[in-house]
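HUMAN: Mind making up another protein with tokenized structure?

ASSISTANT:
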Amino acid sequence: MDDEVVFRSSLKAALDWQEHGFQICGEANSGLSAKQMIEELKPDIVITDICMAEADGLSLIALIRDQYPRIQVIALSGYDDYEYVRNSMKNGAIDYLLKHRLKGDSLLAALRTAEQRLAGGARPNSGNEPRRATQERRLAVQRQSLLRGLLQGEVKDAADMGQSLERFGLQFLKGQMILAVAAIDGMSLHKQKYDQQQWWNIFDMVIEISNSIVSEMTGGVAVPLGDDRFALLFCPKGGNSHMLFYNLANECITQLRRALKMHCNLTACYSISAIFDGYARIARAYQKICALLDEKTYHDDDMIITEKAGKADPSAAAGIGRAAAHYNISIQDEQAISKMLKGTDEAGLIAYIEKIFEDRRKWHLDAGRLQIVLAELLNLLSRELRECSLDIAEIYPSYHQIFGRIQYMTLNEMKLCVLDCCQKVLEAVRQFGLARQDGCHTVTKQACGYINRLYSQNISLHDVAAEIGVTPSYLSRIFKKDMKKTVVEYLNQIRIEHAKKLIREGGARLSELAGLVGFNSNTYFFTVFKQTTGKTPMQYRQKEKHD
């Protein structure tokens, strides 16, 4: 749907729609009329321009996502701008095509993707799916399956392999080729930013771009591997020498890197094989360059990892082999970190965490062992807070999400993640007086834990004393000696700290704060808040906005 009559005409003429199993059921000249026609016609696929009269394409895509989740959307625009790509994909578009570069094959590829997303059902506007379209889709799936099987060594040298290669248009696999495997950078962040469907939409675009460039420049093919890696198979053109073939493969990767940055705002790391002969050697080459690509954990983004760069320093490894065998966080590490947390020794804690990761870098641990180190450190921080009856998920909301992204994280990302979590835990130690609890009587620790759990409820000194099984007077005396403040003063401190947190996060109205943090009176809450912070809640919020 596009508000330009000329472009709509050229779009209709770009394909023999019925020949490929599609039928145009309607067209609209504005966003408003598009919404009306979608309601009336219930199409399977919508092709929409981003810029239209009355209602833009992004709002139309969002409406389709919310009200017609089965409809597949292809977005068109004249703007080569990543923000349009990102927003259209985020709102539910399965592909994004630039109008000035639109060709029949790219449009058909987008339509095939939409077709696959329709859960294999028949299109109501075209009757049963034509046999040719079904066959084409089946062949495409079988072709990808054969390629992945060859890469992973699951397809042996069968007698009919030559016929299979010819059937799927893969005759070039009989001759010389170069293999590259790419791993998309920043996957831990992408997994946090996009849901599964949004990411698959973006990854489909990556594969389409890769296929287009590789097939055009070398006659090769791109093969998706999971949702964060893909393989590139290059074949020489016109009997190129080895040097010219390598240059061609590298130029192809250079263009691909540029295209992925421009259209998808993504980078990747690449590992490239030597030239080899025939499909029988693909699995061996694949295994070797995947091992090199696993070194990505120790490298920066957007680079080509060579065999030399991927290997650990032998001289360094010789001296630390024994230490590397005990890569886990030791009892001494736990004690040191705990002591620095309770002593709020920020500089010492940062230096200690950095040394832990630097040691693991020298030992050149594999990704799995590094993930164990990260998990142990995060669990240690969680235990420290749990001893004081605090939930780390409240202090560091990303805590549980990290374990869903851990397999994609580089060593530097792991280190920054732990340091960030340490900063949040240190803030909690300072805010909630946890440092003072080190060396306190058990009664005091139990009282602090009870208050930290139930601060938002209507609790008093008598409630706390009854919970831990002592008299109010005994609790008052011991608590004041340990914490240098009364139980009520500590309770008010905890409540005000949580009120400040709510103000910073913008999660509540000022009029609601008192009740949310356990005060029975707004007046008393405002009085305690000003005594504690020197500002009213309104003044504190304004200060936070300007800082």
In short: Confidence is low (pLDDT under 50) at residues 120-129, 309-322. The chain has four domains: 5-129, 134-158+168-309, 314-431, 439-546. Strands lie at 45-49, 72-77, 95-98, 176-184, 221-225, 229-234, 268-272, 276-277. The first strand starts at residue 45 and ends at 49.
